[in-house]
Amino acid sequence: MSTHLTQESGRARPRPFRFGTTSFLTARSELLEEARKAEDLGFGTFGYPDHFFMPLSTIPLLMMVADNLPGLRVTTCVLCNDFRHPLIMARDVATLDVLSGGRLELGLGAGYVTSEYEMAGLAFDPGQVRFERLAEAVHIAKLAFAGETFSFKGEHYQVREWSPCPVPVQRPRPPLLLGGGGRHLLSLAAVEADIVNVLPASAAAGMLRASQITFESFKEKVDYVRQVAGARMPDLEVQVLVFDGALTTDRRAAAEAFLGESKQRLHQFVFDAEVTPDDLLGSPYFAFGTVEDVTDQLLRLRQETGASYIVVFPHLMDMFGQVIDRLANS
User: For residue 198, which phi and psi values (nearest 5 degrees)?
Assistant: First the structure.
């Protein structure tokens, strides 16, 4: 997988689109059927979240998918850093990369669901502390993936003369995904990641701010990443998560109806401001319209922000399968 823009006649060509999806299923047969469907529809990556309230564990599940579907890349979306020591995380990730033949993408996060920490008896430290731990974990993981014996002494983690084994197949490492909606996490992603997931900013209890679903908010954050990344920016892949949408010939009516049900359908969001149909129709996080409308929306998004890695929830797979067909040569 290349993460570089290509050059043609002195001009940078847009990065090709990539599409990913995830799953919330529990049975082996159903999970594999969903993953096969994703592959058949043209999705390139298949992921699974890392939460105590999810029915299955992320790493073994992804190994099963990788073993049965050799055409798919697999991704952790995302591992909670506080659930594992970075050495355990790095060893598990390297093992999965080796056993999958180099098809893993590593998503890491600082943790945000208070109830999970309470379940495990873990202290839910202030955001700055969780962020610092994540930054140290990223540094340790990169040292581990390099394959040389190393030591590390940080504020939160210490490693003494560890010789990493195994070493990932992908060099210099599996692609690293970091992201968020605030400047601390976006700054870390701009400096350390290969893939930057740009989200609305977090509110209390791990919710996302509905006021930040707009195209303008997304573009502002990508511009900030570009400013921090500097010369690294052409090597970064910008990812957007599409939460919901609908195929329809009347986009506005669909958006208005969706807003009427938004409290039930958007359980990830806190409505900290009024959201209008225009906000929804312009948002990169939602897709309403015909296949042609959604295709045009993604082309505009890529042109104006550089975002090219589109991840959708499983209920949108059929819809985006048609979009993938239209964008096959874009």
Answer: -100, 115
